[in-house]
Amino acid sequence: MSLEREELADEAKEIEELEINLLLEAIYQRYGYDFRDYARAHLRRRLRHRLELSGLSDLGAMQHRLLCQRDFFEQLLRDLSINVTEMFRDPAAYRRIREDVVPLLKTYPYVKIWHAGCATGEEVYSTAILLHEEGLLERCRIYATDFNRVALQKAKEGVYPLERARQYNSNYQKSGGRASLVDYYRTDSESMLLKSWLRKQMVFADHNLVTDGVFSEMQLVVCRNVVIYFNRDLQERIFTTFHQSLCPGGFLWLGAKESLKLMKIGEKFSELYGSEKIFKKRLQ
Ligand SMILES: C[S@@+](CC[C@H](N)C(=O)[O-])C[C@H]1O[C@@H](n2cnc3c(N)ncnc32)[C@H](O)[C@@H]1O
User: Fold this and answer.
1) In the predicted model, what is the mean pLDDT of residues 15-31?
2) Could you tell me which SMART domains the record lists for this protein (predicted)?
3) Whose CA is nearest to atom 11 of ligand 1?
4) 119 and 76 both lie in a single domain
5) Same domain, yes or no: 45 and 150
6) Which residues span the domain enclosing 23?
7) Kind of pairing, strands 159-161 and 278-281?
8) Do 17 and 139 belong together in one domain?
9) CA of 246 to the centre of ligand 1 (A)
10) pLDDT tens for each residue of 64-101
11) Residue whose CA is closest, atom 2 of ligand 1?
C-alpha cells in the first residue's frame, strides 16, 4: 500500500473509532445502557453488521436513528448481547461442580446462587437438575439475571428446540448426570418443555452488570461467557461486583475462556480448579 493510501486508511479508522464513541455515548445518555467499556473488536463487528443490514450510509446516520427510534435501539441491543448458550455447556466443568463444589455447598444451611448473564436459561436449568440430583435443590435459591429481556422471558418459559435435545443429553451424560435428561422435560412436535418444578427455586430478574448493583451473601456466582465481551477495566469492575456479592469462602465459576489471572481483584480469590475456571473468595 502506498504511503498516501495508508494514511487515508488510518484516517478512516480514526473517524470510525470516533463515531463509535459518539454512538455509545448517545445510547448511554438516551437509554441508560452503557456499552462504552465493551471489547472494541466485538462492538465494531456488531455495529458494522447492523449498519450493513440497515442500509444507512454511516454510523452518524445510525446514531440519529438510534436516538429517534426505540425499536431500532432494541434491535441493536439484541445484536450486542450474544445469547449463544446450551445445556450442560462444558460438561467437565459441571462434573467438577457436582463432585467437588456441591459437597462444600451442602455445608451451608441455605444456598444462594447467582447466574449472571443467564441468556435464555439453559445453563440455569442445568444447574437446577444437577442440584436436584445431589439432593440440594430444595435448600437453594437461584437468581437468574440478564439485561436482555427477550432472552430472560425465554429463560422463564424454559422451552427449547427439540433438535437440540440429543446434544444436551450427551452433555448431561458427560457431566455425570444420574438419570436421563428426558426425565426433566416434556415434548411437543418441535420443542422440549422443561418441567415447571425445576423453576420452583428460581427468581428471574432484569439486571445490567454494568449499571446495576450487587447481590448479597451468595455462595456461588456463575458468570460464564459474558465478561469475554468486556474490556479489561470493565472485567475488573464486574469481578469486584462478584467479590462483593459472595460470602467469604464463596465460589465464582467463569467460562472456559475467562480468568481472574492478570486482574488485581484476582488476589482476593484462590484458584480452586483452574481448568474448570472455578475460584474461591479468600476469607481475608
Ligand atoms: C454468550 S451468553 C452466555 C450465556 C450463558 N451464561 C452461557 O455461558 O451459556 C452472554 C449473555 O450475557 C448477557 N449480557 C451481556 N452484557 C450484559 C450486561 N451488561 N448485563 C447483563 N447481562 C449481560 C447477554 O445478554 C447474554 O445473554
Assistant:
1) 97
2) MeTrc
3) 117
4) no
5) no
6) 1-80
7) unpaired
8) no
9) 19
10) 999 999 999 999 999 999 999 999 999 999 999 999 99
11) 83
Give the residue whose CA is nearest to atom 13 of ligand 1: 117
Do 50 and 152 reside in the same domain of the chain?
no
- Read off the pLDDT band of 4 (50, 70, 90): confident
pTM above 0.85, yes or no: yes
CATH value at residue 217: 3.40.50.150
76 Cβ contact list (under 8 Å, min separation 6): 27, 46, 47, 50, 66
Which residues on adjacent β-strands are paired with residue 113?
Answer: 142, 220
Number of domains in the chain: 2
CB-defined site of ligand 1, < 6 Å: 81-85, 89, 117-119, 123, 146-148, 151, 208-210, 224-226, 255
d(CA 121, CA 154): 7
Distance from Cα 114 to the centre of ligand 1, integer Å: 13
b/e burial code for range 147-169 (CB count within 10 A of at least 16 → b)? bbeebbebbeebbbeeeebeebb
- For ligand 1, atom 16, which residue shows the shortest CA distance? 81
* Per-residue pLDDT, 130: 98
Q: How confident is the model at residue 119 (pLDDT cuts 50, 70, 90)?
A: very high
Which ligand 1 atom is nearest residue 84's CA? Answer: 1
Nearest CA to ligand 1 atom 23: 117
